Amino acid sequence: MACGILPEDVVREILVMLPVKSLLRCESVCKSWYTLITKPSFTTAHLNCSVALERNHCILIKRFLKESNKSVMSFLSDEISGDDHVSPIEITIPHSNHFLQMLGPCNGLICLTDHRDIILCNPSIRVFKVLPTPSLNYPQGLFSDTIGVGFGFDPLSSEYKVIRIAQIHEDDDDGAGYVFHSVNVEIYNLNTNSWRKIDAVVPFVWFFPCSELLFNGHFHWWADDEDHGGESMLSFHISTEVFQQIRLPDVCAFPDGNERAFLVFNESVALVLYNPSAQASFDIWLMTEYGVAESWTKLFTIGPLVQVEHPLLFWKHELLLEKANGQLVSCNLKSQRLKEFQVYGAQESLRALVYSESLVSIKRGSDIN
């Protein structure tokens, strides 16, 4: 199809149906196609088309490779099969380690963080941006450590936000520990490329693998519940920037030897309670009414599973997990039969997201309107 033969609106309707990989090639066909494809309005139309048609959905896997000392992201097709071809995308990430978290996705963007560096990335077009270090000043002798990171898109202001929850502390006199002072919240706006502090009183946030979740315009963390003497899911509304604490089921009593994961199951928030061991079981709880603590309902238990340690992602009728040796496996929710993938990483380094590709550029933070 040569440039100029078809009207621009017809060309646009054809191009908007193509996958990102094909569109990147089409940018080189002619100047008019490049101009069309790089317009923010086309990026929005392409993303909306992908969502409406539920196309290009895949599973994005992050793992850390010890032998090469780097993190690798891989795409799996939407039909889970142990024989699937896995195509690795290698991204050089500063200070990369196997604890690197993968948050999102949001309009094709993801957030990568080791709770020191924070990076925004679009795996579809293989671009990333290291965020500037928060420059907020604290009194002499006080230090700031990141304990929680969140990421999402604000449709009201058309901007992407990164939330940083930090504990403020000072070293004690003998240097053997530190004295806790408070928890602060800072927000990064992609459009302005800057951080700002917001006034919010939030509890202490705990980290475990897959304990941070973006869902329905809110970001969530596992946190203390000081008012009720237990645990909570801390929720942050991306647009209103308001926090809410949602109590976890009464069976949660930290420390109890169990770990927690927040996943999405049947379009609701699910809590997975498990104890990594030689034969681990996974209790699945569902919050049937969002934001209502009393709606937590235990659905079922998976396992015990031999040498399977961490849940990663619910996908259709499967639960993806990481084995003790760092191998990716899936468990059928009905038969509870395991299926192995030829995908390995350093122990506890695997993360997984349901991903849909996009053209959204990190350099053009306001692509989506």
Automatic annotation (TrEMBL):
Q: What region holds the F-box domain?
A: 1-47
Transmembrane segments annotated in the record for this chain? none
**Which Pfam families does this UniProt record tie to the protein?**
F-box, FBA_1
CDD domains annotated for this entry?
A: F-box_AtFBW1-like (cd22157)
NCBIfam families to which the protein is assigned, alphabetical: F_box_assoc_1 (TIGR01640)
Q: What is this protein called?
A: F-box domain-containing protein
Organism for this UniProt entry: Escallonia herrerae
